[in-house]
Amino acid sequence: MTALSSFSPRHHVALYAALINAVIIAFLSLYPFSGWSYSGRPLLEFLSYPLPYYSRIFDNAANVLIYIPYGFSLALLLHPRWLSFVLAIVLAALTSFSMEFLQELLPSRIASNLDILCNIGGALIGAALAVSSWFRRYWHGLWQWRRQHFVIDSAADYGLLVMGVWFLTQLNPALPLFGVVAYPQGLPQPYLSPIDNPRLFLFLVEAGGAASNMLAVNLLLSSFLQRKGDGARAVLWIVLLAWLLKLFAAGALLKPFAFFQWVNPHLVTGLAAGFLLSWLLVRCSRLMQTLLAMLALAAAQTAAVLWPLSEVQADFLSLFRWPYGHLHNMNALVDFLTDLWPVMALACLLFSSSQQLRQQRQAG
């Protein structure tokens, strides 16, 4: 049995990846989910629009790209390969049609038959990659690498999927590294600090939130490693990849003056503390790392709740190069994934801890 055929049915990671992609597609297609109304025009009229209708290069490219991972993950669900390929195209086409149909009821969106063709084209590319012999060879090598460096538990597969979602949350360069949503805009007035020193309180919340976020992400991944000695290296790779991703997003989206707009001493202090704590704690037992990751995750969410500026965020759209509509949708998606990620991470960590405890009972 090949690595591909043993992977999907047993752990269902491809199914969850497809569901995550479907959620992202639905969010981007239907946001802002308001103003639903029926114009009175035939609901399927958009299918007969002359091509190209409302065609923009950016929109067409986005419609292709967003369906590539969707078609890819759908094509991993079944065997034989030809059946999985057909399933991926059919489901992608149905998804695209459903989104365009619902857009007919949203005044702020424009349904388009060209969008459906672009979506199917993207799904076709993704599905073709998934069932190709080249990918099967590549996947076998990737699976061997995964078995070499990560524990065999199915929770590790979900953990890697959750980490992929976390990297997506770093795509908004206006938000600080590791997803700390904080800007030093000044305190809302009147403001009553829980402690006598408001500045100290802000420092503790902002730096603590940064440290907790970094610690949670690092320990989540390191808790699935086969060897403790790989933990420090994993922390370095996570920080480096997150930093490079943030720089890439900033270079592509932000105006030059805003490149490091989010950097301040509080965040730098918190990130440095989180990095040092991660470096030390990755040497703990796997179960201890899992429990500490859950505590860090809870601390990060607590810091976000306590942050007094969260409800008075200014409009930062002037920092960006992108036009308003595309930027608004992307930021909304990143914010949605940022809110969703802690829930996914907590579920993954709970599942992992239950597997570890069960293994310990069986070994004892």
UniProtKB/TrEMBL annotation:
InterPro entries the record matches: VanZ-like
Membrane found in the keyword field: yes
Keywords on record: Membrane, Transmembrane, Transmembrane helix
Transmembrane segments: 12-33, 53-70, 82-102, 114-135, 156-180, 200-222, 234-254, 266-284, 291-310, 330-351
Protein biosynthesis in keyword set: no
Pfam families: VanZ (PF04892)
VanZ-like domain boundaries: 51-131
Protein name (record): VanZ family protein
